[in-house]
Design brief:
72% helix; elongated; 0% strand
Length: 86
């Protein structure tokens, strides 16, 4: 995505960090703090909160979650059946 590792990185660089002129080196923590401040305290830009929340949720592997929870449910049912047979 325009040379960035993924879409989320591109969006943060483009939407939030693009206009900042850094004079000293930055750390991961300082970048995170800047982005969090902009996203969560920008009263006039509520769209950023929704947009970034949706971006995050779109990266979730929902199939994996469903598989894990379904496996847990099946395992619990099988364990209950095994207990009743004993």
């Amino acid at each position: 995505m325009n040379g960035w590792n993924n879409y989320a990185t591109f969006r943060v660089a483009h939407d939030i960090l693009n206009d900042i002129k850094f004079e000293d080196s930055v750390t991961i923590d300082s970048l995170k703090e800047i982005v969090r401040d902009v996203v969560f305290s920008n009263v006039n830009g509520h769209y950023l909160i929704t947009d970034y929340a949706n971006l995050f949720l779109n990266t979730v592997d929902w199939a994996e979650l469903a598989d894990v929870y379904n496996t847990d449910i099946l395992t619990a049912k099988l364990n209950l059946q095994a207990e009743h047979e004993d």
